[in-house]
């Protein structure tokens, strides 16, 4: 099985879409004040960039990969809600799974190191994975990593799609 470990903010949801959840809520006449841990609907999440969705759909079509979400969005939504979000955003394949959250950050740990650990644990627990690619806007030290360093571009950044496809199809 081929797996794309996918972050959302800065990868699928570019800087231009940050805060779009507030516009959606306003359009529906809802308050922008959302209590912590309330997030329960697709309107409570920012939109994905349309061009990033096109790129992701091309990657899925060409590689037949499964999406495993590494984004912090997994803190606020279960796999069912994430599936709804993907469908609403126009992604052709529902997310397959999420990495399990490891909450052991100490003074020496970083979000990046925690995320690497979570991915390594996922790989160890899933020997059926034959190839994988990690895509994030956090700079991580892990094999098969593709860096989306421009949060205004995300996964649609020039050359990113080809790198991901090459890694997944090795």
Detail the topology: elements first, then pairings.
Blueprint lengths: L1 E5 L13 H8 L22 H14 L2 E4 L9 H11 L7 E2 L12 H15 L5 E6 L8 E3 L12 H9 L2
Parallel strand pairs: 1-2, 1-4, 2-3, 4-5
Helix pairs in contact: 2-5
What key phrases describe this protein's structure?
5 helices; Rossmann fold; single chain; alpha/beta; 170 residues; globular
Q: What this model shows, in words?
A:
- The chain has 170 residues and is α/β, with parallel strands linked by helices.
- It has a single domain (2-16, 49-168), classed as 3-Layer(aba) Sandwich (Rossmann fold), CATH 3.40.50.
- Helix content is 34%, strand content 12%.
- The chain has helices at residues 20-27, 50-63, 79-89, 111-125, 160-168; strands spanning 2-6, 66-69, 97-98, 131-136, 145-147.
- It has a five-stranded parallel sheet with strand order 3-2-1-4-5, with helices on one face.
- The longest helix is centred in the last third of the chain and has 15 residues, at 111-125.
- The radius of gyration is 16 Å and the shape is globular.
Shape: globular
How many helical stretches?
5
Strand order of the biggest β-sheet = 3-2-1-4-5
Structural class: alpha/beta
Strand content: 5-15%
Tell me the number of strands: 5
CATH structural class: Alpha Beta
Give a nutshell description of this structure:
The chain is an alpha/beta fold and 170 residues long. It has helices spanning 20-27, 50-63, 79-89, 111-125, 160-168, and strands spanning 2-6, 66-69, 97-98, 131-136, 145-147. It has one domain (2-16, 49-168): Rossmann fold (3-Layer(aba) Sandwich), CATH 3.40.50.
